[in-house]
Fold each of these.
Amino acid sequence: MKGSHAYASMPIDALYRWFAGEADPTSPVWGALCRWIAGDEALCARLDALPGGKRQPNLFLAALRYHGAPTLEGGPAFAAWVDAHWDALRATILARFTQTNEPGRCAVLAPILASLPQPIALLEVGASAGLCLIPDRYRYRQPWGDVIATGATVAPASCRPAGRSGLVLDCAMTGRPPGNPADLVIAHRAGLDAHPLAAADPGDARWLRALVWPGEHAREARLATALQIAASDPPPVRTGRLPEDLDAFLAEGLAAAEAAGATPVLMHSATLAYLPRDERDAVVETIGASGVRWLSFEGPSVVTSLRGRLPDDPRPHFIAALDGEPVARCSPHGGWADWLDGVPVGAPDPR
Ligand SMILES: C[S@@+](CC[C@H](N)C(=O)[O-])C[C@H]1O[C@@H](n2cnc3c(N)ncnc32)[C@H](O)[C@@H]1O
């Protein structure tokens, strides 16, 4: 991911050309459109005038979907539509943020959470709409073919189990996951985000759907189902910024964990990259000093202490780590995971 300074400072045509390359593998529609935008001087001038990090291509592209652009193909019809709708597009770009919430990541997060002493007090920073805060409301198709329903949650109403979840998460795995999501019991959950979204809010749900790139049909379907599940019993996500609000968030989470007799886990996924390096390091230090278990799911160079810990891999990937130790190399959206200490898939389950 480009840092916000690059979005602010890179020449706009180069920014869109770079983004085209990023989008090409999963969204040729965005790839082609970004290349066209890079060559259209009038549109480039408009996008260039957006303030700082708001020049980020993902924001303009999501705004197009959010406002129902009738064509996503570059050309005169597209340019005319953008012209006619620029005020609305600009207002959305200024008001909204890139905060893609990907429940697919739970396919990697849930087995790790399930490997810890249960129940769990799950604390997520950068939670967006909280779709990764409810891994116990999804089901998991494990590599040996089982669909595992998660365990019953305990106590507070906000933690009610959703019964047989409508969302089954698939993950192609090598090695054996460290825990079985069926064992996962969440006694307390809380999220913090600079700009929390609510799954039950139609505008927020529409924005989250708009952030998915055209052509990523499996993600669209997964998100729609997860939004329904979350809207039926919203996970609590409150407003707060890293690093300054982390201490208070951790203190509340630790108190709730103690009251529930639960293992406190601080989790973040696809979030620390939004912070400058010194703030990321400060966040990690605060987590380490707090006594919580620490589950991170970030790009390979995002967490300073994890940089260079695994051999290079040409695939776009994230590293899932527990207490600063890599547990899995995995796809950024949870579609595959190579468990690092597992035994080969297909070996008998000792449990
Ligand atoms: C890409 S989303 C990831 C959401 C979720 N963790 C997931 O994996 O699906 C990153 C989230 O981090 C939040 N965020 C970014 N910088 C933040 C900060 N300094 N403090 C709190 N939240 C922040 C954004 O608002 C956004 O909702």
Amino acid sequence: MTSSDSSVRDEYIHGVAPDEQRRLATMNALINPMCLDALHVEPGQRVLDVGSGLGVFTREIAQRVGPTGYVLGVERDPAQLAYAAGDVASPTSPGWIEFRQGDATKLPLKSVEIASFDVAHCRFLLEHVRHPGAIVSEMAAAVRPGGRLVLADDDHDLMRLWPAFPEFDEVWRAYTRAYEHIGADPGIGRKLTTLLVNAGCVPTRMEVINFGGCAGEARFPLLVENLIGVVQSARERMDELDLCSAQKTNRVLTDLHDWAAQPDAVIWYVICLAEGRRPD
Ligand SMILES: C[S@@+](CC[C@H](N)C(=O)[O-])C[C@H]1O[C@@H](n2cnc3c(N)ncnc32)[C@H](O)[C@@H]1O
């Protein structure tokens, strides 16, 4: 299998087990307020959220666009959609939100919806796919002329722990190599602007959203648990590919708790965000 084989379905390295869904929901609670502010959506706008996962962020976008707006989440996996549907069924769910099953490389849009969105957004999707350019092109076609594309994703090389924890760095490298083995790109964050340009958009903004923290912050234990969770959910793949033994990974993840108990422990990490505009 090669990364250019377009007939192969992308593998989502973290899977959709209930523990992983809980991790994703907690992570959403940690970062969504910052991500929502950075998205710059306004009341009345039509927003497309691609690779919407549990739909937690999609729903928060819907709260911001309000009843005169509309938000469509597109997600491939039925288990994630079922979670999102459970939320939509709640009486507090906005009526102007919809989820649709589909692949981001061929968005399930009706012909009247093409070129109709004000904003197309994706977060933590492009790092998981073989053909990110195909997805960004679909997103560019979905927005109206002058509409905005906002891409937010990881650049795994930017992860730094201090005080130094070299064994964790080795496990993190093995984790990122697992991405490469399945044809995904752990360094997609730095390439987001290139993806926009290649899709015919004019880049208008780049920024980083803090995905780190230090000991003493209330959110720090949750950031540590998120770090453990992302590696845990990819552990089987890392083991299969012989990138790092399960025994070593387990030990290092356990030791991460001791590392995090140091009064000066810091996770330096960011979400990369790039914005572009479809030309008029
Ligand atoms: C890390 S989750 C992020 C979910 C959400 N965007 C968030 O930030 O909370 C990535 C999601 O992308 C979905 N996904 C991966 N490849 C996809 C594709 N080709 N088309 C649609 N969804 C995809 C996965 O099923 C998963 O739910």
Amino acid sequence: MLAGMSQWLTLSRAAHLLGISRVALQKRIRDGELPSFDGMVDAADLLRSWPQLDLEDSGSFEKTRAIREDAFARRLRERVLPSQEALAQRLFTQGQELAELQRTLTRYHALFEALRARLDAAPAPAMEDLARLLDEGLARAISEPVAGADAAALDAMLRVMSAHVTVKPSGREFFVEGSETLLKAALRAGLSPNYGCGNGNCGLCKARVVSGEARTVAPSDYLFSEAEKAQNHVLMCTCTALSSDLVLEVLEADAPEDIPEQRIVAKVRRIDALSADVMRVHLQTPRSSRLRFLAGQRVTLGIRAGVRDGSDVHGEFPVASCPCDDRNLIFHISRGDRRAASADFSRCVFDDWIKVGDDVSVWGPWGSFVLEKASVRPLVFVAVDDGFAPVNSLIEHAIAVDAAEAITLYWASAQPGGQYLPNQCRAWAEALDEFSYRPLATDELPAALAADPALAYSEVYLAGAAAVVEPLAAALLAAGVPAAQIHVEGL
Ligand code: FES
């Protein structure tokens, strides 16, 4: 490689390499700390900005690893390798690129030799200067290390270990680790592709391969039409990426109305107390019928007749977990739930009427308390007591999709220490530079929000008892925060 040649990386590859969010990288570019050209950054500039880009020693890498389980060193340690076929294919592609580069260098070399011979043959003293310049330039090119070569080498390794997928028409991107399916990788990255059964039967997760190669890794009963085969359609739930780069045309859900109503029977996997007044209920769906929902939405939970006094008991609760794990659904159930219609279900949880292994009907999802997909504003979440449940789902999703350059969480409680998952909130704040956590008492909340100038240009999400959050929303509106930026949980 000649000195001075640039090693360009896309923003997502650079962020993946560093183990930081894409928005953090974009902020450095906007602040003038990192040059970029046409959506790419030079590996040498990256090394200058992050001189600690030595994977195991990188502070930012280590911090973010706790949040993003797919970070580079962890994958290496756990040896989550792609299949032999994918490895062979990707190495072959890199080998081809390397061979092409070698051919180019050979041609440059031949050109150099021819030029040098002509200069030797020319008698003029000016030609001697030119010959010396060429010789010295070549000696430097061969002896000096190439700036950014380390980052480029790491990037080349990443390209073998994980495939980069670009989704059309949205332009969203995600990485496929090991031999995971395209659907699993897309959900993990916070995307909302269309899908149903998750196991190759319904055909709802169909996607068209625009470029690159995908390979089937799980059996499927779905039959493609001849036209679909000719257009390179694949099932995202049964295929993985074979090539390092893949472009897919995918149908994505952009709004709550794009998600169909579903009815599923899930099993209770675990119930544990988060505090004296809040229980965490973990439900797991069957493999073949997972719950498709958007972060922040709620569902109806029901217990079959006969569990309690021979009658059905229902309740409507926000899902507290991220849609990226569509089989494991977490709920935070409060004692004497503030929503009257859900109080009976809550009693069943606190009175031990619901036990591990029981069936619970889940239907939904409902509600439009979801992230504004098109917005790039900072995110402010205001949770009051168990209003933290949908906020938890929204924050996990926002982190997965790099949705914002700054996230602030106000969590207010009427009870001292009523923030029942404080360690998790502190872990977010410690792991992510752009995250700030402010626990406070409910009566401190109006003054704290009034004193926060960032609210005027942020998307503000409020969740909790209507008696508390509705006056807060009205106060924000009166203070000049545009109505379109204020989102209130619908219960
Ligand atoms: S989700 Fe049903 S076939 Fe993929």
